[in-house]
Amino acid sequence: MAHIGIDARLTHYRVGGISRYTSALLAALAKLPSRHEFTVFQSRKSRRRLCSAFAAAKLWTPPHHPLERAALSVELARHRLDLLHSPDFIAPIRAAKRHVITVHDLSFVHYPETMTAASRRYYSGQIEASVKRADHILAVSGATKNDLIEILNVPADMITVQHHGVDDAFQPLPAAAIQPALKALELPSEFFLFVGTLEPRKNLVGLAKAYRELKRALPDAPPLVLAGRAGWHYEQLMADVTAVGIGEQLLLRHAVSDEQLPALYCQATALILPSFYEGFGLPALEAMACGTVPIVSEVSSLPEIVGDVGALINPHEPSAIAAAMAAALTDSAWCQAQREAGLRRASQFRWQKSARLAQACYQALLN
């Protein structure tokens, strides 16, 4: 029996993204039979145990600290791990006999100008060392795998593509289950929806320009809801979005809970994800699982996730985004076909499948 550790410290500091991946993967791993011992490592500040099926331990080293790799190596030494999985991709210098990392994206390489200087220095200084230290890498999309090969020269056989799954909570809901969330968030009965961190990489200025164009063609178009927390360069980003001039038709909702999110997807006319780059694009998958039409960029991982469902748009052309939004409003037959196709597509992405891929990776390294 081997001792496997999973680094879940980030879940105390952030929601969404990597934290959601870590929590969902743990829950799915706990349901799989295994002869190995697992320990989940959480922040010393955390008061919530992530997975009751596995042992838990607290660590003092905070994530994204300049000395994280060295400090974590010292803290983990006493646990005598056979394998450590780092979902936040920064692996310690040495903390186990084998190391697995998950790489979610290389946005800091593609779009360094959209990050703070401190974040740029941290990621740029750590990623190459972590990749070299890893015995195997889980990439959340084929697009991220290709980036690792082309940008960091990682051998293809060192990388396994491990797509996200979609939680069972994301499914078509009856009106009675949707209304409480709409009321709590003070939202109208019709709207376009963006879900994600509010940061420059998400192309929200382009989305605002597209919406302005849509309103000129269709004055009765419903408002645009941006659901997500503030990210890098938020103040300047929102100043630029406001300058586009769509006024009260732009509805910001920063505090949408995980419980409310399925209702928003279900009620939305369409999900718009016009990002310049996505390592995976989980909102597109969640939207399809709720029977919502996805309108997403034709770049990076997004075509890989939606397949032939919805509309693929050029993120640099607001007019293309506006045309897809107009189709979602006016072409009911197309929308119905996309909703049905989206449900079929989303059913292919399951956390149990992701967990089995991780488990197979662990076993191959342990062997």
Unreliable residue stretches: none
Shape call: globular
> Could you describe the largest sheet, including whether it forms a barrel?
7 strands, parallel
**Count the strands?**
13
The residue-averaged pLDDT reads 94
Q: What is the CATH-assigned architecture of the largest domain?
A: 3-Layer(aba) Sandwich
CATH fold type of the largest domain: Rossmann fold
- Percent strand: 15-25%
Structural class by helix and strand composition: alpha/beta
Radius of gyration: 21 Å
- What is the first-to-last residue Cα distance? 11 Å
Number of domains: 2
Task: Provide a descriptive summary of the structure in words.
This protein has 367 residues and is an alpha/beta fold. It folds into two domains: 3-164 and 350-366, Rossmann fold; 175-346, Glycogen Phosphorylase B (Rossmann fold). It is 42% helix and 16% strand. The strands form three sheets. It has a seven-stranded parallel beta sheet with strand order 3-2-1-4-5-6-7, sandwiched between helices. Strands 8-9-10 form a three-stranded parallel beta sheet, with no helix packed on it. A three-stranded parallel beta sheet has the order 11-12-13, sandwiched between helices. Helix 7 packs parallel to helix 8 (234-244) and helix 7 crosses helix 12 (318-330). The radius of gyration is 21 Å and the shape is globular. The mean pLDDT is 94.
